[in-house]
Design brief:
Length: 137
């Protein structure tokens, strides 16, 4: 047996045993995308509403928030929100388009409160500035 062949066999055997020849750091990325949503109705301050993928289970949602964000979750409730039906503008009598269904998850936090951030609070509404300029003109 040649030296090259012996080295190739030893590398193949080490991979078969589960050992890496050159160990390296690995970064594991999550395949889920979760979107926090501002609720339409009033919900308690210890609850969070978010849109999750349809294949994500309650157990997956709990693990996602506990492992990635370090948030302790007491309970998870999910519901499926049906998509809206819309008529096609080109052929209003024949075709109806439906948007995709979404899964909504409600998380109850343990000894924590969550307030949805006011992203545009420091900006004045555009219409107020516009009406002031018209009045001054």
């Amino acid at each position: 047996m040649s030296a090259r062949f012996r080295k190739a066999v030893s590398v193949a055997e080490s991979f078969a045993r589960g050992k890496e020849l050159f160990p390296r750091q690995r970064i594991y990325l999550c395949n889920w995308f979760v979107k926090l949503v501002k609720p339409g109705k009033e919900i308690p301050s210890d609850q969070v509403q978010c849109h999750v993928p349809m294949k994500m289970t309650k157990f997956d949602v709990r693990n996602y928030f506990e492992k990635i964000y370090g948030v302790k979750v007491a309970a998870v409730h999910t519901r499926i929100q049906k998509g809206k039906l819309r008529r096609d503008k080109k052929q209003p009598t024949k075709l109806i388009k439906k948007s995709c269904d979404t899964k909504v998850a409600y998380l109850t936090l343990v000894n924590q409160t969550f307030e949805f951030p006011n992203l545009f609070g420091r900006y004045k509404p555009w219409r107020e500035d516009f009406t002031k300029e018209i009045d001054d003109f």
